[in-house]
């Protein structure tokens, strides 16, 4: 049973590992929309200040993944799956560092089963 709040596809994992080799430590942040949109943004760890109201969902490939607190309430019962797509012509349309390599991270989600959500709650209460 996989109760991690955030996971990553093998394809996205490959891109993250490539970016880590080039940029060092990374951090992901998914904002609540508006100017930033709702795609997960990838930054060099020291280049982004994580807003204090954001929630750490977990880690992917050793990188912290944060989400806007209001979005967290919406996704509380869901697992976020980080994926990547090849993005032709996207260069310069985002501050997220994968864009320069012709990729864009995106998220999908799935609702936890009742059994998974209960296990997740028990796990979080232990912390």
TrEMBL record:
- UniProt-listed InterPro entries: DUF779
Q: Which organism encodes this protein? A: Malaciobacter pacificus
Organism superkingdom? Bacteria
Q: Give the matching Pfam families.
A: DUF779 (PF05610)
Name of this protein? DUF779 domain-containing protein
